[in-house]
Design brief:
453 residues, mainly beta, seven-stranded antiparallel sheet, 0% helix
Length: 453
């Protein structure tokens, strides 16, 4: 995302700050919740349209035009906060030998996915994306460009999508007094682009994240700051959070424990026959802390009969996801949505080789502003999870009721953009990530990871 001038602060508007880059680590804590003081949403009006600014509270966080939740780690952006980018700096986490890396996870792409992360000096003008101004560098999700101290980015790395984790770190064993230090970026734990040299500003560097299109949401992870992602696989192998049922999210290569006519090869699923529905189901259910997963079509095979969705834990083999009740799925070949029956409805674009398809669940639809009646149901009609269920009627999962409030909204994405979804009721035992393959030569790469925090 290229720069345009949205802030009336000059590039030279910096204040010398105590502490140097090699001072205290600053890992101490995930930040404190801010207490607003006047102005719209607790932010002070700075004198020109759309420009709101929040000064540091107890020296820990600067932010503008964002909604902050979950101890200031879950960030959301809306144009109602003003038209300029929304940004956050974590001043309790000065980049140092003890804190040299952080990540964000893209929870919601919003309209355009204009999301960025990087490093900036402590008085960086908050109406700008990371990298647009001097004393800053940033990697942007929507175009994969690197911005280094100016508003004209250069091609750098891959674009990012919902569920991707973007990281920024510093190599402290390669510091040069004249050329500065090495800054690097990652996508899903793997380094992207070339390392960047940047002179350390007075007062040091601090983590910065920003968003700039309606509906975007990210989760910030500062707790990985003492680790070096270049020496380990971030997220894909190391599970750092605990899901609601007490277990961790599955490791990528060990995730798919129910397989029929499908062979697992690392993170890839390979269809092994023809003419029969192949099924792969994950070993753990979708949860509040692990609400989304994706696949990438590596090879569409003969017909591209690929499907992604959720289903109950005993979903019958030989049935494509979405064909039977207690299952919802998006099919690649025709772009149809199948919700508990064999008759699909027009839904989204067909998907081809190289496309990414995603599936997720909003567990509290009312909180996300999704229209519908989300009141707890009053009667019970538990589902039958029998594998031999031959009911081919098209009574969707959303018609099922339970004494517990298990109503959710299942949604799907195409190349990182949300395309829609449908109400549903989680069956007893939960909804499990499920992938279907059914034509010779089909291969998909899966992306399953925990949402930290």
């Amino acid at each position: 995302m290229d720069w345009y001038d949205v802030d009336n602060e000059s590039d030279d508007e910096r204040a010398a700050a105590p502490g140097q880059l090699f001072g205290r680590g600053g890992r101490g804590g995930r930040g404190r919740r801010l207490r607003g003081r006047g102005g719209f949403n607790g932010q002070n009006h700075r004198g020109h349209m759309g420009a709101f600014r929040q000064e540091p509270i107890d020296g820990c966080i600067r932010h503008a035009r964002v909604q902050m939740e979950d101890d200031s780690m879950l960030l959301s952006y809306s144009k109602r906060f003003g038209g300029d980018p929304g940004s956050v700096q974590y001043l309790d986490n000065e980049i140092s030998a003890d804190f040299k890396y952080f990540e964000i996870e893209i929870v919601d792409w919003g309209v355009e996915g204009r999301i960025g992360l990087g490093l900036a000096h402590r008085n960086y003008p908050l109406g700008n994306m990371p990298g647009w101004r001097s004393g800053s560098v940033g990697y942007h999700a929507d175009d994969g460009r690197l911005f280094k101290e100016n508003g004209h980015g250069q091609q750098f790395g891959p674009k990012c999508a919902v569920g991707d984790r973007m990281g920024c770190g510093v190599e402290f064993d390669e510091v040069d007094e004249e050329e500065g230090l090495v800054v690097y970026f990652t996508r899903n734990g793997e380094r992207v682009g070339k390392d960047v040299r940047l002179t350390v500003p007075e007062g040091g560097f601090f983590p910065m994240v920003a968003m700039h299109s309606e509906g975007e949401q990210i989760r910030v992870d500062l707790d990985v700051g003492s680790a070096n992602p270049g020496a380990r696989e971030v997220v894909m192998r190391v599970i750092e959070s605990t899901v609601a049922d007490g277990g961790g999210a599955p490791e990528e290569a060990a995730a798919w424990n129910r397989l029929s006519h499908v062979r697992q090869d690392g993170s890839k699923l390979v269809y092994t026959t023809s003419g029969k529905s192949g099924l792969a189901q994950c070993e753990q259910p979708v949860t509040l802390r692990w609400p989304y997963f994706e696949l990438e079509i590596v090879d569409a095979g003969a017909n591209g009969y690929i499907a992604i969705g959720v289903a109950h834990s005993k979903y019958p083999f030989g049935q494509h996801p979405g064909w039977k009740k207690n299952s919802v799925a998006y099919h690649a070949d025709d772009g149809k949505l199948f919700n508990g029956c064999g008759q699909g409805e027009a839904f989204g674009p067909p998907c081809r080789q190289g496309d990414r398809m995603g599936c997720g669940i909003y567990f509290r639809p009312r909180d996300w502003g999704i229209p519908g009646n989300w009141d707890p149901p009053s009667s019970s009609d538990e589902s039958d999870d029998d594998d031999d269920d031959d009911d081919n009627s098209c009574s969707s999962s959303s018609e099922e009721e339970s004494t517990d409030d298990r109503r959710v909204y299942v949604y799907f994405t195409h190349n990182g953009k949300k395309i829609g979804g449908c109400p549903s009721v989680v069956p007893p035992g939960g909804y499990f990530p499920t992938i279907g393959l059914m034509s010779r030569g089909e291969v998909v790469k899966t992306f399953v990871r925990a949402l930290s925090g």
